TrEMBL record:
Belongs to the MreD family. The lineage of its organism: Bacteria, Pseudomonadati, Pseudomonadota, Gammaproteobacteria, Lysobacterales. The chain crosses the membrane at residues 55-81, 102-124, 130-150. It is a multi-pass membrane protein. InterPro entries: Cell_shape_determining_MreD, MreD_proteobac. This is Rod shape-determining protein MreD. Keywords: Cell inner membrane, Cell membrane, Cell shape, Membrane, Transmembrane, Transmembrane helix. It is found in: Cell inner membrane; Cell membrane. It comes from Pseudoxanthomonas spadix (strain BD-a59). It comes from the Bacteria. GO terms for cellular component: plasma membrane.
Amino acid sequence: MSRTRHAWVLPVSVLLALLLALLPLPPGVQPLRPYWLALVLAYWVIEEPERVGLGFVFLVGLVADISFGGLLGEQALRLVVMAFILQRFRARLRFFPLSQQALAIGGLLLNDRVVASAIHFFIGQPLLPWAYWWAPLLGMALWPPLFLLLDALRLGRRA
């Protein structure tokens, strides 16, 4: 009963993450934008692996690629790499305190930047500016409140 009553949280959270990524920011703040889609999908891969697997993450990544107008498949690849690592270590990560989870998510977001830089390097695009490497720290700081908010919505508790 609870699962069907709160089934709206998954699609709404993914849609909101896509919209937050499309939100225009001033050029000075743009490099600090957290990877909202990765954070939201990380939560769902950890908490609802039977609903959010590699296929779902890949499809959401393709939607993001089309929405952002970037290289088709780049975000899909980046998100699938992140989801694969999360699935591999889900059993351990799930029982970490939020502070340790945040460190692990920060490492995954840093890995995402490495994968994005490698993709840009191999296709001959300019590499990401150094300011973009600060965004994983912001994502790491946002993990605990985002986790608690999504958990409260998913389980039907007050946030």
